[in-house]
């Protein structure tokens, strides 16, 4: 029997453990991590996400497209068939301001994503159908919103039902410690997000860095996901509003590489509220889902996205043949989680078939 430690219990580790066990029910899998769903800590990214599916892959990045496509299909399926997952289907509309469109200097194709033919109901919204004076382009499709606390608990439950085990551990300092966690596991999957390259013994020629995000969890409900990009003089800010399945919404956001402060930017909070009310007026309309007449903040979320120059790393470590990396999801760990898990399965499958051929 092959035994595996999945190191990390964020959306990536939990989903990878599920994909591995579904592929081969004989694998003995332990998920070992310092934080588990329910914990809130700035070094643990997954609880702070929005989250929705809106792939960031470029037209050329076929590998990331493949990873993200599995996520879209899986989340649409969960939304339709399993209410326990906390995922639901909502229209997802992106607006680009006149300023943003002018900055593209006529290259409008840049606003049309690679997934236009892979998702349901993709449409470009013509300027005369856009209800905002300062916006000149929009796109829309049938998307999903993942209610993060519910979905993370669901992943824990799925792992339990499949027979995977859990072990809460102190932060490990050297990657070799992961091999002492259970009875000498054959493989360790490094799904430690922001922690991945802080562990001694893990070497990566590419740079890993965090990108700060700030969102507001509010009582007000919206009817669909809306994002607006292109606020003059504020290139690291955008607006997104995502309605959560259990009521309320997430309002974001910002994208700040190198900013490690865990403090709320109060001026950003004020700008987010102003923008949300302008572009999604139903948020403060009591006739819509009994909304309050002003934005009621339940919590300000500060989270750090685990970015890696060159993107996700899924491969066998060149030095430790028992170590498979599974990190660097950046701003897309939810949408990419299923595809990442399946890619780890492919890597392990290859490893095990090499081993067999040597015996
Ligand atoms: C504001 C914000 C909005 C976002 N919105 C979206 C969105 O809409 N859609 C989307 O797809 N993604 C979104 N993301 C990105 C997504 O949240 C991340 O990509 C994802 O959560 C990364 O998951 P992970 O499992 O790799 O890391 P984490 O969730 O950070 O999990 C890491 C795990 O490893 C453990 N660990 C780390 N180091 C050690 C160690 N040394 N020893 C033991 N355990 C260790 C931790 O305790 C934890 O269990 C958003 C992120 C932010 C911050």
Structure description:
- By secondary structure, this protein is α/β, with parallel strands linked by helices.
- It has a single domain, classed as D-Amino Acid Oxidase, subunit A, domain 2 (D-Amino Acid Oxidase, Chain A, domain 2, 2-Layer Sandwich), CATH 3.30.9.
- It contains six helices and 15 strands.
- It has helices at 11-23, 62-81, 98-103, 148-162, 266-279, 333-358, and strands spanning 3-7, 28-33, 87-97, 123-125, 135-146, 165-168, 187-190, 208-218, 225-229, 237-243, 249-254, 256-257, 297-308, 313-316, 323-327.
- Helix 1 packs parallel to helix 4.
The distinct ligands, each listed once, are: flavin-adenine dinucleotide
- Element-by-element helix/strand order: EHEHEHEEHEEEEEEEHEEEH
Please name the fourth-level CATH homologous superfamily.
D-Amino Acid Oxidase, subunit A, domain 2
The domain count comes to 1
Radius of gyration equals: 21 Å
Provide the descriptors you would attach to this structure in a database record.
globular, 6 helices, 15 strands, single chain, 359 residues, alpha/beta, binds flavin-adenine dinucleotide
Question: Can I get a quick summary?
Answer:
By secondary structure, this protein is an alpha/beta fold.
Any chance you could write out the topology, listing elements then pairs?
Layout: E1 3-7, H1 11-23, E2 28-33, H2 62-81, E3 87-97, H3 98-103, E4 123-125, E5 135-146, H4 148-162, E6 165-168, E7 187-190, E8 208-218, E9 225-229, E10 237-243, E11 249-254, E12 256-257, H5 266-279, E13 297-308, E14 313-316, E15 323-327, H6 333-358
Parallel strand pairs: 1-2, 1-7, 2-6, 3-9, 7-15
Antiparallel strand pairs: 3-5, 4-5, 8-11, 8-12, 8-13, 9-10, 10-11, 14-15
Helix pairs in contact: 1-4, 1-6, 2-6
The structure holds flavin-adenine dinucleotide (FAD).
């Amino acid at each position: 029997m092959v035994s595996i430690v999945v190191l990390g219990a964020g959306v990536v580790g939990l989903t990878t453990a599920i994909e591995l066990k579904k592929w081969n029910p004989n694998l003995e899998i332990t998920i070992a991590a310092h934080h588990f769903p329910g914990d809130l800590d700035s070094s643990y990214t997954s609880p702070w996400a929005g989250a929705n599916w809106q792939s960031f892959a470029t037209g050329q990045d076929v590998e990331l497209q493949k990873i993200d496509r599995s996520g879209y299909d899986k989340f649409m399926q969960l939304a339709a068939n399993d209410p326990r997952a906390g995922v639901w289907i909502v229209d997802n509309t992106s607006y680009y301001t006149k300023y943003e469109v002018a900055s593209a200097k006529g290259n409008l194709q840049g606003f049309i994503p690679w997934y236009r033919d892979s998702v349901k109901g993709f449409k470009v919204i013509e300027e005369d159908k856009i209800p905002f004076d300062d916006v000149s382009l929009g796109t829309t499709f049938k998307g999903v919103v993942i209610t993060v606390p519910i979905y993370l608990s669901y992943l824990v439950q799925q792992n339990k039902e499949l027979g995977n085990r859990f072990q809460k551990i102190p932060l490990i300092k050297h990657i070799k410690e992961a091999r002492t966690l259970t009875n000498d596991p054959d493989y360790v999957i490094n799904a430690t997000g922001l922690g991945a390259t802080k562990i001694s013994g893990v070497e990566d020629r590419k740079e890993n860095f965090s990108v700060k995000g700030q969102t507001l969890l509010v009582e007000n409900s919206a009817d669909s996901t809306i994002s607006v990009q292109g606020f003059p003089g504020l290139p690291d800010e955008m607006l997104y509003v995502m309605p959560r399945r259990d009521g309320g919404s997430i309002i974001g956001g910002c994208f700040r590489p190198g900013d490690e402060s865990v403090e709320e930017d109060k001026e950003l909070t004020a700008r987010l509220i102003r923008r949300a009310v302008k572009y999604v007026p139903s948020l403060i309309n009591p006739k819509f889902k009994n909304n309050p007449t002003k934005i009621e903040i339940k919590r300000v979320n500060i989270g750090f996205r685990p970015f890696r120059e060159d993107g996700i790393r899924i491969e066998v470590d060149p030095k430790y043949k028992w170590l498979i990396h599974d990190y660097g999801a950046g701003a897309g760990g939810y949408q990419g989680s299923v595809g990442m898990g399946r890619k780890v399965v492919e890597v392990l499958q290859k490893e095990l078939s090499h081993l067999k051929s040597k015996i």
